[in-house]
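FAQ

Q: What does a record look like?
A: Structure on top, sequence underneath. For example:
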């Protein structure tokens, strides 16, 4: 029997009428009209339906919608905003670095598996910014590509890791420059205050 269930998806609260054991995938696709997660095997074995639940990959075809109440679900559509929030970016990018890297490496053929590939790679790079080939292969294990583009997927994850590392380095450099500028401004204010104090002393004499 359908219940009224409140879920947070891509940082927006939704109220849906659904049986508690309805697969999350069905709610995302049918009720919220989200097209990122896809039905693949229906057994949680291919990864096409993957989403992030509190930042951790989950197979939405096997996850009951009631299991995500009180949690935050991120789909492919919400990945850029999720990345921006993680990195404290002032502007949400058009795509997550993994999405851009998949395009740059021309990984897609049929494209059916790429929702899961991108979701899993994004989760990996939040935990391990510079993963080895072995770490990438281990993380992506269980995500099946019918077209066999695994070498390009591996290169795309490596490219995304490099771009994210470069962006982080730029962000740190900018933060250092801002801190140095604030320190110089504070030093100037202190020097001016001392100068004014000295001038008042001279006048009083």
């Amino acid at each position: 029997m359908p219940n009224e269930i409140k879920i947070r998806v891509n940082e927006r609260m939704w109220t849906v009428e659904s049986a508690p054991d309805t697969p999350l995938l069905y709610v995302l696709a049918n009720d919220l009209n989200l097209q990122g997660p896809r039905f693949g095997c229906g057994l949680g074995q291919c990864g096409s339906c993957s989403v992030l639940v509190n930042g951790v990959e989950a197979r939405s075809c096997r996850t009951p919608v009631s299991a995500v109440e009180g949690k935050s679900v991120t789909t492919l559509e919400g990945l850029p905003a999720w990345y921006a929030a993680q990195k404290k970016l002032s502007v949400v990018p058009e795509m997550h670095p993994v999405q851009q890297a998949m395009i740059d490496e021309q990984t897609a053929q049929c494209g059916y598996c790429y929702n899961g590939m991108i979701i899993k790679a994004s989760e990996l790079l939040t935990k391990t910014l510079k993963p080895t080939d072995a770490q990438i292969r281990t993380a992506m294990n269980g995500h099946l590509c019918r077209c066999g583009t695994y070498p390009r997927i591996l290169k795309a994850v490596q490219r995304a890791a490099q771009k994210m590392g470069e962006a982080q380095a730029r962000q740190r450099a900018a933060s250092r420059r801002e801190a140095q500028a604030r320190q110089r401004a504070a030093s100037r204010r202190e020097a001016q205050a001392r100068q004014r104090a000295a001038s008042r002393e001279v006048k009083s004499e």
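Q: Is there anything notable about this one?
A: Residues 97 and 164 are 7 Å apart (CA to CA).
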